[in-house]
């Protein structure tokens, strides 16, 4: 039996103190992004292209429009923002830096508030990571930055015939059981100091540069709490190079990285508002 006052599992309700904190958080970060040259955009809740963003399409909440085209509730904002700016608004704006404050939805009735930004036509990943860390410092949260490279598991899968699902599922025990020396060394990497020249020399040529790229990016960031995870595979299917997460304990605060959309190299991140509010409330 469902009572009138109940809300669906996974839905969000904010009131009183938490509602005020949510509004203040969104206002503070919006002001910060505006000062960094980003303009705001609010995209439609409904989209035709969500299957291009989400790896598991079963998570989409789908229905059909009047012409029987499949529509989904927005499960991710990134590709919609780029398509709308470059295709629909391309004649009215040349601006390339955009942010949004809006929820995303997943099956069966989950909603998550996000604050995100997209930097269209920019490919220096260090810039977006630095901006993300500025956000974390503004929130005064002592979080961990985890840097990964989607190219590494992809190359290993394509060149050495190792099932990509092992990386997507983070199946470390099965990867270890393959008993491949250089692969085990990759699994054991935890920091930039672990990536030595000796280790690089032991890597197959096809992935050596990709591993070195991780170390160079980590060295550029003026931040103490950095973890390198060469084999981590993110859930957003459009990220195609450097990918990062910022976490505090069991809470993911932010994800971001490099991607290509509409043949344009771009960068972006999404901050998980609900998780941040849980951390700040504690």
Which helices and strands occur, and which strands form pairs?
Blueprint lengths: L15 H20 L3 E2 L5 E2 L14 E3 L5 E4 L4 H11 L8 E10 L3 E11 L4 H15 L4 E6 L1 H10 L3 H5 L3 H6 L3 H8 L8 H6 L2 H16 L5 E3 L10 E10 L2 E11 L2 E9 H9 L1
Parallel strand pairs: 1-5, 7-8
Antiparallel strand pairs: 2-4, 3-4, 5-6, 6-11, 7-9, 9-10, 10-11
Helix pairs in contact: 1-10, 4-9
Descriptive overview:
It is a single chain. This protein is of the alpha+beta class and 282 residues long. It has a domain at 8-141 and 263-282: BirA Bifunctional Protein, domain 2 (2-Layer Sandwich), CATH 3.30.930. It has helices at 16-35, 78-88, 125-139, 151-160, 164-168, 172-177, 181-188, 197-202, 205-220, 273-281, and strands at residues 39-40, 46-47, 62-64, 70-73, 97-106, 110-120, 144-149, 226-228, 239-248, 251-261, 264-272. The strands form two sheets. Strands 1-5-6-11-10-9-7-8 form an eight-stranded mixed sheet. Strands 2-4-3 form a three-stranded antiparallel sheet, with no helix packed on it. The longest helix has 20 residues, at 16-35. The relative contact order is 0.17. The model has no long low-confidence stretch (mean pLDDT 94).
């Amino acid at each position: 039996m469902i009572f009138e006052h109940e809300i669906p599992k996974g839905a969000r309700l904010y009131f009183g103190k938490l509602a005020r904190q949510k509004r203040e958080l969104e206002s503070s970060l919006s002001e910060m992004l505006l000062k960094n040259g980003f303009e705001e955009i609010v995209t439609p809740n409904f989209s035709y292209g969500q299957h291009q963003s989400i790896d598991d399409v079963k998570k989409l909440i789908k229905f059909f429009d009047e012409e029987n085209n499949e529509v989904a509730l927005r499960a991710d904002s990134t590709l919609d923002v780029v398509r709308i700016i470059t295709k629909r608004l391309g004649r009215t704006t040349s601006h390339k830096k955009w942010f949004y404050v809006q929820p995303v939805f997943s099956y069966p009735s989950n909603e998550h508030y996000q604050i995100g930004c997209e930097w269209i036509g920019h490919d220096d990943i260090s810039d977006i990571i630095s901006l993300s860390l500025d956000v974390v410092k503004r929130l005064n949260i002592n979080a961990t930055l985890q840097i990964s490279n989607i190219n590494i598991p992809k190359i290993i899968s394509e060149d050495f015939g190792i099932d990509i699902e092992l990386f997507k599922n983070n199946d470390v025990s099965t990867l270890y059981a393959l008993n491949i020396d250089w692969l085990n060394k990759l699994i054991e990497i935890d920091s930039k100091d672990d990536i030595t020249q000796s280790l690089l020399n032991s890597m197959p040529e096809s992935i050596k540069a990709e591993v070195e790229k991780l170390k160079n990016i980590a060295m550029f960031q003026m931040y103490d709490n950095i973890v390198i995870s060469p084999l981590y595979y993110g859930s957003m299917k459009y990220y195609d190079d450097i990918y990062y997460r910022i976490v505090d304990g069991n809470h993911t605060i932010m994800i971001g990285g490099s991607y290509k959309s509409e043949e344009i190299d771009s960068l972006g991140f999404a901050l998980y508002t609900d998780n941040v509010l849980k951390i700040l409330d504690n």
